[in-house]
Sequence to fold (213 residues):
Amino acid sequence: DVQILFAMSSASMDYRPFYDEALRTQFLQDINDLIPRITELEDEQILLALQKAIAKLGDLNSYVHSPAEQVYPIFFTTFFTDRGAEIRSVMMPEEYSQLLLKKPVSINGTPIVEVTQKLMEYISHENEYAANYFISQFLSRPAYLEAIGITDGDAPVNFRFLDENGKKVDISLSPIKYSDLKTEDLVGNPSVPVQDSENFRNYWWEYLEEEQA
Fold:
């Protein structure tokens, strides 16, 4: 992967994150610890180990593509509100459509705050926006939830939500192959547009007239 090569070939003090010599030493130690284990690990585990090492660099442009052999048929997006960043569901099986745009409160009994804190170890980011964006994506990836000890392999996972009445609602979802995922079988939209009235438009930006900026 070009990003891995970039981080490795730039393992000199010329690379901005390595101005901190202790950080550079830690990164190289992580890589060197991984090398002897490569033949013992699955490809997905190798990617996760590399991702965890590179995430420590705090450089958004040095990253590993997320392993996505399997996914849960549910997607989340981070909404930025006057209450702060809030993760909400934006796509899921139709039978659970009443929980669209609702906030998850736990996964397999682990509070969502704790889940997101553990996921931070795998996220290359330079600011809060990037961190929150990637966290919401990783909640649908079994590889990450298993890596942080929330789930166990192919077992179904329990997502708990609060509905509009404040009642706890649990749903159980099993992982499926990413190649078998059919978004037409789900309800919602994985990317909520700027203008809700034009929800067929899949974008996050809009040109404004000067006086509106």
Remarks:
- The first helix runs from residue 2 to 9.
